Write the structure tokens for this entry.
Amino acid sequence: MHAYRSHTCAALNASNVGETARLSGWVHRIRDHGGVLFIDLRDHYGITQVLCDPDSPVFHEVEKVRSEWCIRIDGNVKARDAELVNPKIPTGEIEVFIRDMEVLGAAEELPLIVFGDQEYPEETRLRYRFLDLRREAMQRNMTLRSDVVASIRKRMWDKGFREHQTPIITASSPEGARDFLVPSRLHPGKFYALPQAPQQFKQLLMVSGFDKYFQIAPCFRDEDPRADRSPTDFYQLDMEMSFVTQQDVFDTVSPVLQGIFEEFGGGRKVDAAADWPQISYRDAAKWYGTDKPDLRNPIKMQDVSEHFRGSGFAIFAKILEQDGTEIRAIPAPTGGSRKFCDRMNAFAQKEGLPGMGYIFWRDGDDGMEAAGPLAKNIGPERTEAIRQQLGLGVGDAAFFLGGKAKAFETVAGKARVEIGNELGLTETDRFAFAWIVDFPIYERDEESGEIDFEHNPFSMPQGGMEALEGDPLDVLGFQYDLACNGYELVSGAIRNHRPEIMFKAFEIAGYGEDEVKKRFGGMVNAFRFGAPPHGGCAAGIDRIVMLLADEANIREVILFPMNQRAEDLMMGAPSEPTNEQLRELRLRVLPPEE
């Protein structure tokens, strides 16, 4: 017999009754039923109930074991009594009577309990991640992640892609976030960088004649953490293709993602890839207040400025006298009560605004009537025009925000989400996707008046060189994101592969040709030697798995994540270097500023 097991803890069933089995695993739970000890023995695959009574030669040894001890047992497989069968687990028809036991690894008092669903502080969970990962939910999440990656790989190969690995130690990337720098021992005073993404290398692969590329790529960015973003490293499905248009990229990656969400979505509805809308960046901001809208929520905001211009509501009327301002409405079907409107007003105040104006419609003595402070100030004609524009009726409401769009859009987007959730309008059992397209390449700094890049500077401008001759603020790029349920899952672009167009694009933003060559010399040099049109995208593996696992925090689907302060509490990183290491690298560490 094998040294540790003849079966896993999920393998035995009624067909094994009468056999001798050897199992190894962790003591999940112990129950003492009047001198008979029942132990749920757990491994990665499942749980088997084993038992021991005073007739067993190792009874006194078994009495000593505690939760999370790692043990091996030999025993006889027996059928459970019919009334004791557990149909919820594969081994529920049998139990194993222990004849021999070996303690493989005793456990000290546990800082967190593996059995059950107790909540523990994140610091405790991350410091003892090896215990946290033993929990059923974490085992399930990590298995899901592994299966998702395997499925992605197969689907990409089936589409004619080959996987290639790009360097981990490289030069700084043009991605825009902070690099993690690596000092060079052989070249004192110089530094490598961990790649923020394989961006330049995958483009160089296209110049090298590789028609289709993908990899499950590790990416490193020194970023501030968020619930849906790791502060140090993450993995993405990275892909690039030659001789393609924007639509070709969509047609390639959309079925892959649709298939993944159908395979692992647990029966939740997945919008068909052919039905994923393409929404311009500006329309997404206007309708949803974000470039990653949650389309499970049917609410679409609208510009209602004309109804307030010169109206009796002085606050909005005066706002509209200023250039670049507007009044936007958030429809709230079924939200037509003062109680709900007051609740949403309080929500806006928590977000740092004075509040939100509102109108709600109810039955009155003479039919439908509009209520709320705004309705009284602007009068019935304007109120009725707003109602008709928004398509609302009795029992509905609308909320209003005004000013320059960039100042209130984020809060408006949050309010739209809150309203959809509060009123039960958002479909919770669905994955809804949308391509966000037509990103502006440039923006003007309001204080300095200077033009700079708003989004990816390496996207091909729509219209090429000719587009760069006009107003920079009108220039759109062949850049795109894929949003799903309020998260950005994919980002990509058709690349600017023409050196003369690239130099012009950077010149508009104040970067000279010499600076471009210095910062991105490898890629610019390659483009001088017959670069093909190419484009691609990257999909966030961690975020995809987070959605599939129905988790709100990305750390629940990463094996060994950092905490909010980008610290590895388990391994003690970051750590201080030794003096010997610093001398070898010719580095000196300055004391922290007071």
